[in-house]
Amino acid sequence: MTSLAVASAAAAAAAVSSSATSSVLSTTATLFGKHATEVVAFSAAATLVPPLVTSIRGGGARGVAAPKSKSAQVSKTTEPSSASSSVFGIHLTPQGKSVVWMALGMAFHYLGYSLARPITVALFTSKSTGYPNSPGAFPFAMAFVSPVSLLLLISYGHVLEKYGPRGALSRSTLGCATAILLAAVGIFLSEQSGASLWGIPLTKFISGPLFVFRESYVQLLTSQYWSFMASVLTPNQSAKWFAPIAGLTSISSVVGGAAVSLLSGTLNLSGTLACTALALVVSLIATNAAYSIAEKNGFSPERQQKKKSSHHHKKRSKRAVEVEERLMVKAAKLFERVPVLRALFLEILASQGLATLLNICFVASVGKTIPDDTVRAGWVGNFYALINVFSMTLQFAVLPLLMQLIEPKDLWRATPLISLGFTTFQAFQKNPSLYAISASLLVMKVSEYSARRMLDEMVYVPLDFESRFLGKEIIGVFGYRFGKSLISLSLSGLTSLFGQFNLQSLSILSDVAAVMWAKTAWDLSSLVPTRKEAQDSYDKASTKNSNKKR
């Protein structure tokens, strides 16, 4: 019976994601490149891909000088990667094809995540499977996000050193898919049997850890996708293409969020959750294709990692291996060496503190306002789909043009001010409604998914390998989750001292957090290079490394 449910979930997810994604991507193809009406068929699942990187030429990896001209000419050391190929009349360089595949992998990852998010919220706030009568349950669960993220990060560091970027991404993706599938099967069996432990339904023992894991795993995978693309594209190319690439994830998130109501009504919550595992498997196929192209054409990040690792191992003794530096020591040294990463880490802590407070308000309000589990899951799915519609509009239609007119630091400074206006309005409400809270959370999430996601990745592009891979994971995984856990622990402590906070009190705290976010974003903006400075730094490092090879 279990296998039948999982199989049905997989089939339904494949049908929904294939048809819906093909439709939206075909429409979105008009927003890309010179071939506005053409799309590329890349998989047997008939997923249509817009030629979003058709015009990219010579986006070499670190250690390879990017060509100055717009032609396909590159240096002799990178000749294998410079040959463009034609697919259905569309010319893509190997770098372009690898970025398309990696972007597709990230899109399927977010498709699955958009299915899992409303399901886990519905399970966590359900009377039968969650903790709706425990006001402190949500911040208590969020407090565990940082420790779990830290464990995932430590594991990632070991796997990255042993297997390289490709092996780390493959193993972490399979691990996440397996964990989610096991949780879906466990929930299905528990609901069917009505099993309990110490008088507590078994589903309650699954829904809590599942919620924490869902909050933890998303950034672990996301950071690895962006690390690859930041290694392949130059600063100028990233400024042009990162927003549309992020927009592709918004499209898949819209599809996933909108599909929750349909899938949960057909497959129940556990079956819909199993579809997340299926989406991760498809994501793995796409990311492996990206790395295969990069390895074949000589611009894979694997090369940089292996060279650095080989040089590193020659220098350190067996004793040094045994007393390897702790991750936090590595982070401290990295932040000291690269101040912009330290400022980015603090900005992320502040922004995620605000996001957590607004999320606590949202979960409490939606749980009271919408009692039915399936209806609540559908409502949350549609809400996040709306967030991604706004994000997609900004990523495709606004940000690419805006970034040609202003510098990144200007957008860093302006983004938090919009959220500050909404949280201030919410803080002055005596009993904030679900719609007022949702509006504040929507603005925060739209800015995070569109502007912040793009700006965040642009910071890494001109940096070295360690900053782009290990640094990104430290900041992306631990920073994002530590901010949430820190505010959750603080809130739990204040609750034990002063009693339960009402929605207005939480709204006031959210407004204070918005002020802190604006301050840290301003500090970060003073360290962010201009587009010209970033490109010059990239070209200088690439030329230096290229000369070393000769």
TrEMBL record:
Protein keywords: ATP-binding, Membrane, Nucleotide-binding, Transmembrane, Transmembrane helix, Transport
Any one of the GO CC terms: membrane
Annotated region described as Disordered, given as residue ranges: 63-83
GO MF annotations, alphabetized: ATP binding; ATP:ADP antiporter activity
Localization (cell): Membrane
Keyword Membrane: yes
TM helices/strands, residue ranges: 36-53, 136-156, 168-189, 241-263, 269-294, 343-367, 379-403
Skewed-composition ranges (Polar residues): 70-80
Topology class, membrane: Multi-pass membrane protein
InterPro entries in the record: ADP_ATP_car_bac_type
UniProt keyword Nucleotide-binding present: yes
Similarity-based family: Belongs to the ADP/ATP translocase tlc family.
Name listed for the protein in its UniProt record: ADP,ATP carrier protein
High-level lineage: Eukaryota, Sar, Stramenopiles, Ochrophyta, Bacillariophyta
